[in-house]
Specification:
single chain; mainly alpha; globular; two-stranded antiparallel ribbon; two-stranded antiparallel sheet
Length: about 300
């Protein structure tokens, strides 16, 4: 049997695929987190909850309303974005002039409350969500069997990350967002509604998390703690890439997923902490993160 770096090729490539899938979720989630931090300067611990809500909205929509997977890819992010906008308008906007710790504590408490509500309503065990028929099955590549849905998750995540990056870096709206991040008072002087921009960005960040949740629903069981299990690693990804860096969040998410996948082959015991080991090394070498800017 063909080997790669001393490991049977199917095992090696299978772990790379698993790492790429995890990296896709890391990238989309950390992208939304980086957007929110970049403009609002808010450490949003409720971001994992938005991911969980996206999965639950798709599951509940299918079970009670007959909303299929493809419709859920649009409906769930919009629903969670609206929920995020309500949270931002009613709670978070009151904290922008206060210490960052207040926002962190509020979003952390909000995450616990929402998770507790869903745990009470649906229990802690996972709910299955079937893979859509159009994406079922797989392709035999000769050296491994590639599930079609896994390939779709990677492709959809790449496209979403690329579109978001293009909007932020190559459009007038993105230029205004970056300017509002650097000097909101100057942007207001030109008649731009910065408060509305902040609300839209928070809603869009929540929608990105929900989009990842819909993608995750057929792979992982839909359960109330799925976001809590992921958010700490996503924070590590954002720190590695550089707080507020869009490209840093995307590249670090995919790279860390691949590193995590390979670690499971060569050093399984460290696979659950490799993200934090990488973060520690990066912070020692470049405290602002790989793509971050020094204060």
């Amino acid at each position: 049997m063909m080997e790669i770096l001393g490991i049977p090729a199917p095992v090696f490539l299978g772990q790379l695929l698993l790492g790429a899938i995890n990296g896709a979720f890391y990238a989309v989630l950390s992208l939304g987190l980086a957007l929110i931090f970049g403009l609002l300067n808010l450490i949003n611990f409720a971001h994992g909850t938005f991911y969980m809500l996206g999965a639950f909205v798709s599951w509940l929509g299918l079970r009670y309303l007959g909303i299929d997977y493809w419709t859920s890819l649009v409906v769930a992010p919009l629903a969670v974005a609206l929920f995020g906008i309500v949270i931002e308008r009613t709670m978070l906007k009151r904290l922008y002039d206060l210490d960052h710790l207040y926002g962190l504590l509020l979003t952390f408490g909000l995450a616990l409350v929402i998770e507790g509500v869903f745990r009470q309503l649906h229990g802690a065990s996972g709910q299955p969500y079937a893979i859509p028929s159009a994406l079922s099955g797989g392709v035999n590549l000769g050296f491994m069997y590639l599930p079609v849905y896994r390939a779709w998750v990677i492709l959809a995540s790449l496209v979403m990350c690329l579109v978001t990056w293009l909007i932020i870096e190559r459009t007038k709206l993105g230029a205004l967002l970056r300017a509002a991040t650097e000097n909101p008072d100057l942007v207001r002087a030109f008649g731009v509604n910065v408060s509305l921009m902040i609300t839209v960005v928070f809603g869009f960040g929540a929608a990105l998390a929900a989009f990842a949740g819909v993608l995750a629903a057929p792979i992982y069981s839909v359960n109330p703690i799925m976001g809590a299990n992921l958010i700490i690693v996503v924070f590590a990804v954002v720190v590695i890439g550089g707080m507020g860096s869009i490209m840093g969040a995307i590249l670090s998410g995919f790279l860390l997923g691949l590193v995590e996948g390979l670690t499971k082959v060569y050093w399984p015991e460290a696979s659950s902490v490799v993200a934090f080991m990488v973060m520690a090394v990066v912070l020692m070498v470049k405290p602002a993160g790989l793509f971050g800017r020094n204060a």
